[in-house]
Amino acid sequence: MARKESITKQMILDVAFMMAREEGMQNITARRVAERANCSTQPIFRSFQGMDELTDGVYDRAVAFFQDYYRLYPRLEKTPFCNLGMAYVAFAREEKELFRILFVPEKPRKSLYEILNGSTENVKTEIQRAASAGCQDPGGLFMKIWIFIHGAACMTMTGDYDLSDQETRKLLNDVCQSFMN
Question: Which of 2, 65, 70, 145 has the most Cβ atoms closer than 10 angstroms to its Cβ?
Fold first, then answer.
């Protein structure tokens, strides 16, 4: 009878994802993952063709994690793009390393728009909401407000943005309203 695999591909991916959340993608090496999984490097290379395949899996998990995060984030605002902005800034605050991997990468794997839009077409939905609210150029509105949102999130990630959620919500509403007019 063949020996049962004790370290599975899923377990390795789980460990590598946890490491990415805590330390960033740059710290994922076969040796470090093996140490954290309490195994040799053999199960890693038996399960993955190389470290690129493992880090691709971690990246895909990070994308899905963000999309779930956004899907579950409370929708408190009626103003277009404000809920998306609040979730994005909160993600930068709560998941600094995943935010860095997805939205401030050295080598982008997917565009920011692809990640944000996700399978439920989040950005398209917000653009439609803006058009329904009377915005003449909802795509242009998205570009303008997104510069503000991304800047606030990056500043949050680095610790240079210390506004409360209430202050951020007001700013997002004000910015969006000023760009809509």
Answer: 145
Q: Are residues 120 and 177 in the same domain?
A: yes
Taking residues 36-60, report their average pLDDT: 95
Say if residue 63 is in the same domain as residue 105: no
What confidence tens digit (pLDDT) does each residue in 87-129 have? 999 999 999 999 999 999 888 888 888 888 777 788 888 999 9
Which of residues 10, 45, 72 is at a domain's end? 72
For 112-131, letters b (16+ CB in 10 Å) and e give: beebbbbeeebbeebbebbe
Q: Is the dihedral of CA 19, 118, 113, 77 positive or negative?
A: negative
In the numeric block, the tokens 């899996």 are attached to 57
Tell me: the pLDDT tens digits for 62-93?
999 999 999 999 999 999 999 999 999 999 99
**Domain co-membership, 152 together with 119:** yes
Spatial distance between the Cα atoms of 84 and 101, rounded to a whole number of angstroms:
19
Q: Which two tokens stand for residue 103?
A: 């939205």
Please count the residues of the chain.
Answer: 181
* 132 and 99 together in one domain: yes
Closest among 29, 31, 35, 100 to 62, alpha carbons compared: 100
Q: Which residue range(s) make up the domain with 100?
A: 76-181
pLDDT at 138: 92
Tokens of 93: 């605050």
